[in-house]
């Protein structure tokens, strides 16, 4: 009898404990930290509390998104979704919880952000009519619906962006404050025009004085050129172009001209690397999806495979011709995927002796170098070329930080929080899976900032 009473008493205690813990759990709640505004690229922590253990939790994320463009494209509504099972404490933490179904697989703190796809049946909107920085997250769990918003702020509000007078299309961005700041020159790729200027304020948000420098402005389909004062073709571009940028920065009172790095993306990486070879004032180099050799120039009136991309002291540099570009791009007319990488591989394979002569002598760069490559890059083989750069510098005993990504493609210049699902949907392939591209971006952005601050001793 005593044992029976004791057993019933224990059952009552356990029942009360269970009710008490469920009451303490409270209603399901959605948390986004450190929100509601986060500097894009900084970690965003999404988690759910107060759910019945083992219950399903559905999350969706919406964002109006336009991507990077100088033509101000219309924004489209994008959405992702995922279903989770709450852990024994009634929580779902996106850093550690893998969805059981949804837009992405595996535990991924950024999964709901990069896996968005267009919402069908919703008209596009003018980019200035919607907030393309805001992400709306919604929760459904235990008959509860909750909502949270986070704004991925591209740059700090205090950053001031002004035209760089005397440098066509260029802009200068910096934070206010006393003292002189280390500087960064940004060089874009084969897209040309002013697209690179959209990166000035984000870099300046981390304490650098940034000059975004367009170097050529090709015509669009109508024949119009965004910056007519710049060359229409990328051909025999003087490496000394960077000296003009340095002189401009040296005249700014807030710039420490003894600490200037150059960051080049894609074809712009060649100007950054060649500049560091021949111009001793460059303090550090970032070469994002780079080449290790000089290629032939291109543009209106420039015969293919005939002229170099760069010159030094008025003389063209040796180059490797990219073979078959026109044939490759005819795929657009026939609905065939266009893999631009193939023209560079054909050119290098057919001209090994020219490749040797056209190599960028990176072993002569005394400054710290970061290279970022992707082995599934379908615009050119940046993974192998970045690896070649790192190997030659390692052989020479020089400081090099190499970030190499097997499953990623060409588009690594973002933060990992923008949708990556559309990179390969059209005929023009840039490479990589959405997951691999987002994961690489999520590492490249903070590692680049850390490298530049370390190399320039920036605060």
Give a written overview of the molecule.
Mean pLDDT is 92; it is low at 1-24. An eight-stranded mixed sheet has the order 11-12-14-13-16-17-20-21, with helices on both faces. Strands 2, 4, 5, 7, 8, 9 and 10 form a seven-stranded mixed sheet that branches. It is globular. It is built from eleven helices and 21 strands. With 459 residues, it is an alpha/beta fold. 26% of the residues lie in helices and 25% in strands. The chain has helices at 2-25, 111-114, 200-204, 241-250, 267-278, 325-329, 331-334, 341-350, 352-358, 382-395, 434-456; strands spanning 29-33, 37-39, 45-49, 56-65, 76-85, 92-93, 101-102, 117-118, 134-141, 144-153, 160-163, 171-174, 181-187, 209-212, 237-238, 255-265, 282-288, 310-312, 315-316, 369-374, 400-405. Helix 10 (382-395) links the parallel strand 20 (369-374) and strand 21. It folds into two domains: 27-153, Acyl-CoA thioester hydrolase/BAAT N-terminal domain (Immunoglobulin-like, Sandwich), CATH 2.60.40; 160-456, Alpha/Beta hydrolase fold, catalytic domain (Rossmann fold).
Features:
Rossmann fold, 25% strand, alpha/beta, disordered N terminus, 459 residues, Immunoglobulin-like
CATH class of the largest domain: Alpha Beta
Q: Count the strands?
A: 21
**Shape label:** globular
Tell me the strand percentage band: 15-25%
Low-confidence stretches: 1-24
Instruction: Quote the distance from N terminus to C terminus.
Output: 74 Å
What name does CATH use for the topology of the largest domain? Rossmann fold
Q: Do you know the CATH architecture of the largest domain?
A: 3-Layer(aba) Sandwich
Q: On the 0-100 scale, what is the average pLDDT?
A: 92
Radius of gyration: 26 Å
- Can you summarize the main beta sheet? 8 strands, mixed
């Amino acid at each position: 009898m005593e044992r029976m009473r004791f057993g019933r008493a224990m059952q009552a205690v356990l029942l009360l404990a269970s009710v008490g813990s469920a009451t303490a759990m409270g209603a399901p709640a959605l948390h986004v930290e450190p929100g509601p505004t986060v500097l894009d690229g900084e970690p965003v922590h999404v988690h759910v509390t107060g759910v019945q253990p083992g219950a399903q939790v559905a999350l969706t994320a919406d964002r109006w998104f336009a991507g990077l463009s100088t033509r101000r494209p219309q924004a489209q509504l994008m959405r992702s979704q995922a279903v989770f099972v709450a852990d024994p404490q009634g929580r779902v933490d996106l850093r550690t919880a893998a969805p059981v179904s949804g837009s992405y697989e595996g535990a991924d703190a950024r999964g709901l952000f990069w896996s968005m796809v267009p919402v069908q049946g919703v008209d596009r909107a003018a980019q200035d009519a919607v907030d393309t920085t805001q992400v709306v997250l919604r929760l459904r769990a235990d008959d509860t619906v909750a909502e949270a918003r986070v704004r991925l702020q591209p740059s700090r509000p205090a950053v001031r962006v002004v035209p760089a007078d005397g440098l066509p299309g260029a802009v200068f961005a910096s934070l206010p404050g006393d003292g002189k700041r280390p500087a960064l020159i940004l060089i874009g790729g084969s897209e040309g025009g002013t697209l690179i200027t959209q990166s000035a304020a984000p870099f300046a948000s981390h304490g650098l004085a940034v000059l975004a420098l367009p170097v050529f402005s090709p015509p669009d389909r109508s024949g119009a050129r965004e910056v007519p004062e710049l060359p229409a073709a990328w051909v025999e571009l003087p490496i000394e172009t960077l000296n003009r940028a340095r002189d401009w920065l040296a005249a700014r009172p807030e710039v420490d001209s003894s600490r200037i790095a150059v960051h080049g993306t894609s074809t712009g990486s060649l100007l950054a690397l060649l500049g560091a070879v021949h111009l001793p004032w460059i303090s550090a180099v970032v070469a994002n999806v780079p080449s290790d050799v000089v290629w032939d120039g291109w543009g209106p009136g420039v015969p293919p495979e005939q002229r170099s991309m760069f010159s030094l002291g008025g003389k063209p540099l040796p180059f490797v011709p990219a073979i078959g570009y026109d044939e490759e791009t005819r795929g657009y007319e026939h609905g065939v995927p266009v893999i631009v990488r193939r023209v560079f591989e054909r050119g290098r394979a057919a001209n090994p002796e020219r490749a040797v002569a056209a190599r960028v002598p990176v072993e002569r760069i005394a400054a710290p170098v970061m290279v970022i490559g992707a082995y599934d890059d379908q615009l050119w083989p940046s993974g192998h070329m970045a690896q070649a750069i790192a190997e030659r510098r390692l052989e020479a005993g020089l400081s090099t930080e190499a970030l190499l990504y097997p499953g990623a493609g060409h588009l690594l210049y973002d933060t990992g929080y923008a949708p990556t699902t559309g990179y390969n949907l059209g005929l023009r392939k840039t490479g990589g899976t959405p997951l691999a591209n987002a994961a690489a971006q999520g590492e490249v952005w903070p590692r680049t900032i850390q490298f530049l601050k370390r190399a320039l001793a920036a605060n």
